Amino acid sequence: MRPEGRADKDTMTEGSTRTKLILKNGAEADPLRTVNLLGRLRAMLDVNPNKFQSLLALARGRLHDAAPEHIPPLREAGFLDCNDEIRCDVRDVLLSAYVPEPEPVLVNPFRLQDGSEKQTAEEALQRRGRGIWDLVFGISDEGRERH
Question: What distance in Å separates the CA atoms of residue 62 and residue 17, rounded to the nearest whole number?
Answer without folding.
Answer: 36
